[in-house]
Design goal:
It contains 18 helices and six strands. The protein is α+β, with helices and mostly antiparallel strands. Strands 1, 2, 3, 4, 5 and 6 form a six-stranded antiparallel β-sheet that branches. It starts with 15 loop residues before the first helix and ends in a 13-residue tail after the last helix.
Length: 425
């Protein structure tokens, strides 16, 4: 399994590129902005009406959230991310992410207008799915920190990774549903919290750094840690974290970088980082979601399976987690257990590509050529994934290509046909 989290312009962690984009947006709008004598933080009323938060929004009922979740699910099955964009109130998001951020007035107008104008959360989700991904509505949840606010829980699977989203839904006076924010479990925070860091970065480079001195120090440390991890200097990244005073170590995004660095150093450091995360953010499913892959990379399969079990309980059950269990069973050369997990997942959710992908691997491993042919046909018809010329896949299909079943496959898949199979996870 690889783990490249879904990152779009509006889901990625605030980084240097985010500042550049934000400043370009600011610069484009400064020429049309109001006078320099505007208040220190521009009120929402200075925004165009279409960018202001919708008036009169109230927490949605559970039924309204469930109905809206089903509609989003159906739209994303068609690849229609624009439907979700049309029901996402960017104005409410802008209000939340700029609260208590001391932006100069012209920068505020440029940044917020540019953000709202270019906001395409649903479209970015749709684009991330590729041929085999999915965005599925699972159920309505009530998070512990907002028990009076029912939210729509979605599972996002891309060809590279997976996460869960909580869509924060409100209703207007007519009863129509609007998304005002989204919680990404892999990031462990609301989208407004994530984008608030971008707004803070804009503030720090437009003359307001002194107002956000703690954030500047955290940002510098986090950027340095990420660079050190990317340069295979994970020990240095951990040292950079330790240099922060205790009062600046409370940001979850810093601890997520620390976890990645600790995993690269070894099990002992990873264990310490996990224990510290658990003390600071108790019962947070983000930890188990992130650790599934960290444990798997370190071949700590029992620990990875334990993380999946805890995540499954936190999500209220999810067939895709049986697919992850199957991948781990294959990694341990346990094809029978992998097959059982995938059959269970496919029975609960027939359209789950990953389940059939692992079943294909099991059939190849067990040299069940009839089942291999059946699954190749199913993957092509149901998921539009063709492996084409099997000689292009190295030794993976070598035994199957010696079988009579392969001769039947070759009749409809000439060697000149290009493959469209997804990259191996």
């Amino acid at each position: 399994m690889t783990d490249r989290p879904f990152r779009s312009r509006f889901v990625a962690r605030a980084a240097g590129l985010g500042v550049v984009v934000a400043l370009v947006l600011c610069g484009a709008a400064v020429r049309a902005a109001g006078p320099a004598s505007a208040p220190a933080t521009a009120p929402a009323a200075t925004l165009p009406t279409s960018r202001a938060a919708l008036p009169g929004l109230r927490p949605a009922t559970e039924q309204a959230v469930a109905d809206f979740g089903a509609k989003v699910d159906a739209a994303l099955r068609r690849g229609d991310g624009a439907m979700l964009d049309a029901h996402f109130d960017a104005g409410s998001l802008v209000t939340a992410m700029t609260r208590d951020v001391n932006l100069p007035p012209r920068a505020y107008v440029g940044f917020t207008e540019g953000f709202a104008r270019n906001f395409t959360f649903g479209t970015d989700v749709a684009r991330s799915l590729g041929r085999t991904g999915s965005y599925r509505f699972l159920r309505v949840v009530r998070p512990p920190d907002a028990p009076d606010e029912p939210r729509a829980l979605f599972r996002l699977v891309t060809p590279q990774s997976f996460t869960y989203h909580q869509l924060v839904v409100r209703q207007d006076r007519s009863g129509a549903a609007w998304v005002v924010d989204a919680y990404d479990y892999r990031q462990g925070e609301l989208l407004s919290q994530n984008k608030r860091r971008v707004a803070l970065q804009v503030a720090t480079v437009t003359g307001r750094a002194a107002d956000h001195a703690d954030f500047v120090r955290q940002l510098q440390a986090g950027s340095r840690m990420e660079e050190q991890v990317n340069r295979q200097r994970a020990d240095d990244a951990l040292a950079t974290f330790e240099e922060l005073p205790e009062n600046l170590r409370g940001e979850k995004w810093l601890h997520l970088i620390r976890l990645n660095a600790a995993a690269a150093v070894g099990p002992q450091k990873l264990g310490s980082a996990i224990a510290d995360y658990g003390r600071r953010f108790p019962k947070d499913p983000t930890l188990d979601l992130v650790c599934v892959n960290l444990f798997a990379r370190g071949k700590q399969y029992a620990a990875a399976l334990g993380a999946i079990d805890r995540l499954d309980a936190a999500m209220g059950g999810d067939p895709y987690l049986d697919v992850l269990r199957a991948y781990l069973m294959l990694a341990q050369d346990k094809p029978a257990e992998a097959k059982a997990a995938c059959l269970k997942a496919a029975a609960r959710e027939p359209g789950l590509h990953g389940a059939h992908d692992v079943l294909l691997e099991v059939a190849l491993k067990e040299r069940d050529h009839a089942e291999t042919l059946r699954l190749l046909d199913l993957l092509e018809k149901q998921f539009r994934v063709s492996y084409g010329d099997l000689t292009r896949h190295g030794p993976r299909f070598a035994e199957f290509m010696k079988s009579p079943e392969y001769q039947r496959y070759a009749k409809t898949h000439p060697t000149s046909r290009p493959a469209t199979a997804p990259a191996r996870r």
